[in-house]
Amino acid sequence: MLYSLMVSLVAFVIFSGVLFLINNLIKKIAPKLSNFSLFWHGLLFLSLIPLLPVNNLSSEPIIPSVLLNDFTHSHQIIKNSYIISEQVNNNDFSQYGLILLFIFIILGCIVSLHKFIYSCLTLQQFSNKCAQVSLSNWFNTQELKLINSKSNIRLIQSQLPHSPFVYGIFSYTIVIPKNFEAMQLEQQKLLLAHELTHAKRHDPIAVFIYRFCCSIFWFNPFLKDIEKGFTNAMEISCDADVLKTLPNKKSDYARALLSSLKLYQTQLNMSTLTHFSNPKHDKSIFETRIRAAMATNNKNKFEILQKILLLAVFILLGVSSFITKATLNIEQIANEVKGLKPVQEALVIPNFDNVHKEAVDLVSLNLQIKGLKPVKEAWISSNYDEVNEFRGAKPHQGIDFAAKKGTKITASFSGVVLIANDTSLHKNYGKVILIRNSENDMQSLYAHLDSFNVTAGQRVKEGDFIGTVGNSGRVTGPHLHFELIKHNKRLNPNKYLNL
User: Which strand (E) or helix (H) includes residue 256?
Assistant: First the structure.
């Protein structure tokens, strides 16, 4: 579980970095696209896809994890080798290192969230000290009508020299600075129109979400770049919305921005808001905003089409990324990270439910269709749940059929061959065949073979010749080790075989 989570976090950081590189390329080809807030919303959503709890499209892993993780249950491991294997597993320092890394990430997240929550509380305390101001001094009749209809916008004045800003989630508060009246009345109205437009567009909520994500995923530097890009795009698009209603006020609006930047400088720095005179704010954005405000033509006939195309592209990327995550087997990737041998010849089937849809699971407590004995001329040398010192006092998880080397092995049930090699499972199993049984949704394991008569992906019928008895892996003599697995749990083969 921990390995899978860390693999997802690494994929999250890498995927965010790839998206940001794509963003830099898009900005060179079509720089105006990055001025849309929608563009950055799409990047944020796409970057979070690796973290979504998406179930794998396969109904279950090709190889049950009980086979990949349990290397010591087989009867052929003598007691001494079992102790050595246990000691090696206990000294898996890489796992401890991974746990420490995970703890470090969690502690960083706690610290980052603490700072974020503290900034929210600080902002609330700051606003409580501000004085309530009448709205009618600065807003026109239409704006007052909008504010009254919303009934969730208020205006307060602080005693600090900062630029006007707006914040809030369920209700919005516009904060004007000390000596705001010293500016020209026209400039005051333009700056407040900008903040009111932020409230109408619900930008403060978006700012809160971006800052919250950056706090949780503090270890991902690309999210901070995405958040910065969104903030710049939000301000530019808000300026454009203001100037759409005031097309003749471009030069006045630009001067108002410049005056606000010059007059109001403060150390007010809160992570839940964005304001012009924030000491950490990139001042270069104002140059871009002023140039945009002074542009001779703000109309773009293709703006709606561009937004529709941009939305379509992000939907396409989102769906494809979602499907990619759903088809990736994170557990198997994690197993490879842990050092387990990858499945080299196992059959990849997207959805096992499509295999023999007409087959009905008749194996139940009351009605059982029993399978064939896999080696007809064999005798049982070790039964299920049998305990002896050669296995380190662990119960036997299958049935051992003793026979001469080269004796034919037949399929107990019909199904699809998933594995036919000696590399997919632990070397103690030797040469193995794993078959997905179509009649009962079980998997049957045939281990310690001498040779194969089937290949991965091949469909076999009950009674088909699939291989020969051998002594590959760790064994005390030639035999077939047979197991049945269902829903990642071993079953007693005696209940399902006609012995």
Answer: helix 250-263
- For residues 278 and 361, membership in a common domain is answered with no
Could you tell me what percentage of the chain is helix, strand and coil, using 3-state DSSP and rounding each to the nearest 5? 50, 15, 35
Vertex 481: Cα angle to 477 and 483 (nearest 5): 170
Q: Are strands 172-176 and 153-157 parallel, antiparallel or unpaired?
A: parallel
Cα dihedral sign for 184, 186, 189, 192?
Answer: negative
* Integer Cα distance of 341 and 449 in angstroms: 19
Q: What are phi and psi of 399, to 5 degrees?
A: -125, 135
Residue (of 220, 321, 199) closest to 17 by Cα position: 220
- pTM comes to 0.58
State how far the Cα of 372 lies from the Cα of 387, in Å rounded to an integer.
25
pLDDT at position 271: 52
How does pLDDT run across 367-396, given as a tens digit for each residue?
A: 456 889 999 989 998 899 888 766 666 788
For the chain, the first-to-last Cα distance in angstroms comes to 39
Residue 83: is its pLDDT beyond 50?
A: no
Give 17-55 pLDDT, tens digit per residue.
Answer: 888 888 888 777 777 777 777 788 888 888 888 887 654
Question: Rounded to whole angstroms, what are the CA distances from 474 to 75, 313, 341, 379, 478?
Answer: 9, 55, 18, 20, 10
Question: What pLDDT is attached to residue 51?
Answer: 80
Same domain, 128 and 272: yes
Please indicate, yes or no, if residue 443 is contained in any of the structural domains: yes
Within a 13 Å sphere around the CA of 152, how many CA atoms are in the beta-carbon half?
A: 10
Say if 379 falls within a structural domain: yes
Asked if the model's pLDDT at residue 98 lies above 70, the reply is yes
Residue 70 CB neighbours (<10 A): 14
Number of domains in the chain: 2
Exposed, middle or buried, 340 (CB in 10 Å: 0-12/13-18/19+)? middle
Q: Any idea which residue has 């439910």 for tokens? A: 353
Q: Is residue 488 part of a domain?
A: yes
Q: What interhelical angle do 203-216 and 37-48 show, nearest 10?
A: 30
Cβ contact 434:458 at 8 Å:
no
